[in-house]
Design a protein that fits this description.
6-stranded parallel beta sheet; 4-stranded parallel beta sheet
Length: 406
């Protein structure tokens, strides 16, 4: 019983639920979330994020979903997967991470292992160890308990790069064989592609730059997109021609949202400023990608102004293709701003989760009573192609700025 591993995944969102689902195939696992509504849905095999089918949420090995703190006491391997967003001034918001750490510290025992998977700036894991775990428990990290970092690489809606097929960094610093074996045993259950490093700070930094690189590459495409529009050039053809070179990296222009790309650059920039380090490129992508919202908004307003009686439909509100997530969704922002001045405007999204549907009055079915004279496509949901074809067949004006369907 001494080496028995009892994992607890703290936070059952887009990151935590896939981790739990993998681990419960081998270990009796606790999926913990303070959101009782979320836990209740998962107990009924309903994933409101639409990432898992009911059949995929069948519990194994006497595992369970819980919002009871009492269940934390049973566990000895904690994986924290709570959100790390931004405050209004683009400063990292570690509130959920600190609260989750405090919760675990109240139940921490000698021999326990804690891993963070939330996106953080380098040095955060060490900060949590000193400010919370060691301070509140009087236990010593590396002697009484162990901490590691394994950055999440979940890509919502992506069935090709699913968690068990994706390489995972696992960072920890101990030479104790039994602790190393436990950590490797757990993470090899999540994915066989494990890359071990002894530097937690390096792993924290690696996570951030993965998304900064993508943000910058998309920003370059968005800059060229804006240039092409103003110069009356064919952006799609320009990219097609450039792609004929063997080392050209092809990225699409578009509205960049979600929990990672609009957030991670600010985490690195924050810690750099704290250390008086000037990073010239990190936030450059943010400036370009953020202004795309206003550009597209103005383009739509121009079209609407040309219509006598605008009857507008925005098809697609979530931040990316076939994903229910609306966090930092620029299409949603555009819709909400347009709705302030346009009376007859609807948003339709068959993917969007039900909470967002109710909160923002989004339609999950097309309003057939509305005779639309403009349909806008800001997200390339798979089923939107049918609506695009319907619009073309019925001679309804279409605004498809990133040429998803034509």
């Amino acid at each position: 019983m001494k080496d028995l591993i009892l994992p607890c995944i703290v936070g059952l969102g887009y990151v935590g639920l896939p981790v739990f689902n993998r681990l419960q195939k081998k270990f009796r696992s606790i999926g913990f979330d303070i959101n009782k509504k979320r836990v209740s849905s998962l107990k009924k095999r309903i994933d409101t994020n639409n990432e898992f089918l009911p059949s995929e949420l069948e519990l194994k090995n006497n595992s369970l979903f819980s919002s009871s703190i009492e269940d934390l006491k049973k566990c000895n391997f904690f994986i924290i997967t709570v959100p790390t967003p931004l405050k209004n001034n683009n400063i990292p918001d570690l509130t959920d991470l600190f609260e989750a750490s405090k919760l675990i510290s109240k139940n921490l025992k000698r021999g326990d292992i804690i891993f963070f998977e939330s996106t953080v700036y380098p040095g955060t894991s060490e900060l949590l160890v000193k400010k919370i775990f060691e301070k509140k428990t009087k236990l010593k990290e590396g002697k009484d308990f162990w901490v590691g970092y394994s950055p999440e690489r979940i890509n919502p809606g992506d069935k090709i790069h699913s968690i068990h097929k994706t390489s995972k960094i696992v960072a920890f610093d101990t030479k104790l064989k039994n602790i190393r074996n436990k950590i490797i045993n757990v993470y090899k259950t999540i994915t066989p592609k494990v890359h071990i490093t002894s530097s937690i700070k390096d792993a924290e930094t690696a996570k951030i730059i993965e998304n900064i690189q993508r943000d910058l590459n998309i920003a370059l495409m968005n800059d060229i997109y804006l240039f092409s529009k103003k110069m009356n050039l064919n952006f799609k053809n320009i990219i097609k021609l450039a792609s004929t070179k063997w080392n050209f990296l092809k990225f699409d222009a578009g509205l960049v949202g979600g929990h990672c790309l609009p957030v991670d650059p600010y985490y690195l920039s924050y810690i750099a400023k704290k250390n008086d380090i000037l990073l010239k490129t990190v936030l450059a992508g943010r400036e370009v990608n953020s202004k795309m919202e206003n550009f597209i908004f103005k383009e739509i307003k121009k079209i609407i102004k040309s219509l006598k009686k605008p009857q507008v439909l925005i098809s697609g509100i979530t931040y990316k293709k076939d994903v229910a997530d609306i966090r930092n969704s620029l299409p949603l922002n555009i819709f909400l701003n347009l709705r302030k001045t346009i009376k007859n405007i609807d948003a339709y999204d068959y993917v969007c989760n039900n909470d967002a549907i109710r909160k923002y009055r989004i339609n999950k079915k097309i309003n057939k009573k509305m005779k639309y004279n403009l349909i806008i496509f800001l997200v390339n949901h798979k089923e939107n192609k049918k609506i695009y074809n319907y619009a073309i067949e019925n001679k309804i004006q279409v605004f498809d700025p990133f040429q998803f369907y034509n």
